[in-house]
């Protein structure tokens, strides 16, 4: 059964809002760069494995996609 809480509900703890914002900005940055990395990887695999570009074509496409993603994300 649910009982009464054993902590003070009238005076909650102070929040560290600058730390919350830093953590959220880090999360957004990691999400953005993770998405760019996965898209670049998939494009490189597509060109290298399916498009007939071979290993060097796939690597070139991967690097080109990362560079385009870098300038697009700025």
Automatic annotation (TrEMBL):
Pfam families, alphabetized: COX4_pro_2
Keywords, ordered alphabetically: Membrane, Transmembrane, Transmembrane helix
Membrane-traversing stretches: 30-49, 55-73
Domain Cytochrome c oxidase subunit IV bacterial aa3 type: 13-48
Name the record gives this protein: Aa3 type cytochrome c oxidase subunit IV
């Amino acid at each position: 059964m649910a009982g009464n809480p054993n902590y003070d509900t009238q005076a909650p703890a102070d929040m560290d809002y600058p730390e919350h914002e830093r953590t959220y900005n880090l999360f957004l940055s990691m999400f953005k760069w993770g998405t760019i990395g996965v898209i670049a990887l998939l494009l490189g695999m597509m060109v290298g494995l399916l498009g007939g570009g071979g290993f060097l074509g796939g690597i070139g496409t991967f690097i080109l996609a990362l560079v385009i993603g870098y300038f697009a994300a700025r």
